[in-house]
Structure prediction request, 350 residues.
Amino acid sequence: METKILRMDIEHISTEDLAQAGAVIRDGGLVAFPTETVYGLGGDALNPESSRKIYAAKGRPSDNPLIVHIADMEQLGYIVEEIPEGVEKLALEFWPGPLTMIMKKSSVVPLQTTGGLDTVAVRMPSHPVAREFIRAAGGYVAAPSANISGKPSPTTAKYVIQDMDGRIDMIIDADGVEIGLESTIVDMTGEVPMILRPGFITLEMLSKVIGPVEMDVALLNIDSTAKPKAPGMKYRHYAPKGELVIVEGEPEQVVSYINQACKEHVAQGKRTGIIGTQESISQYKADCVKCAGSRADADAIARQLYTFLREFDDEGVEFIYSEAFDVGEKGQAIMNRLLKAAGHKIIFLN
Ligand code: TXA
Ligand code: MG
Prediction:
């Protein structure tokens, strides 16, 4: 299949290009598009055949449900059984934005889209291209992240093309993918809302609006063997080709541990990579050293993490070490992704 690549300017979105992209979705095709979190791989959420194609293009197990993206609040009622009060409140505060809410699905949403579940995950992205594209596509776009299953989610069109060229009909390339980690997912079907995937919208931010919110216990404990409630969270994910290890401890100890480990790999002719922070970066020695920004700046770390993991692949790095990031509640989202990318390999130095 030939994949058409459409470059869009977020300041001047071409209505012709949008109509073309929307028509692909309405005809049952697939279009990758930018959102403020990561690129999505979109298909018509109400067409079971489109969902089947999404799973095939990603190489994703079909029991892993997709998020349905909408552009306007009026669209929500059609795809859910009812809109809980908490959803309305959270939507007012955080939509459009990086928050996904799970509700009971209505009969119009095919089980192929929800991985066989009777619930549906819904998100209203804020990226201007995403919003206009969803409208042009008919209002309901099912989209997982636009990576091959298991790889880091793409935050630039370059990596969407790397994974999806030849597998889908179209890729929309635009700037503005600024958050860099996938949306927070909160399950609104229980008595107390529960976070199934941490993200930019934190538990504290949610509970300020709706009162008590819980965190899926499987996400809290890094050694946890509990099964996560979001089906997708159980898979190894976001993984670079090289072996990634996280090192936690006092900053000087971390630097000397990582440098020593890299020295040993280099002695064996291996290529090494490090993710460090402004505070420590000048002390590291490896083939590829990446600076995630200041240790206190969770947003900057989040924005760059997946790009770093992809760049290590591009540069053939075989062993990667990363500092642990302990920056408040957003640090939780970063560590959740980093631990999955590392297959939970973490070394505690104290
Ligand atoms: O930021 C994002 O959320 C991006 C952009 C493209 O919007 N999308 C994204 O989709 O990250 P995906 O498919 O890579 O991750 C969706 C996660 C999976 O872990 C899936 O298991 C979970 O959401 N999920 C979807 N529907 C669910 C449901 N009904 N119940 C529980 N978990 C659900
Ligand atoms: Mg994903």
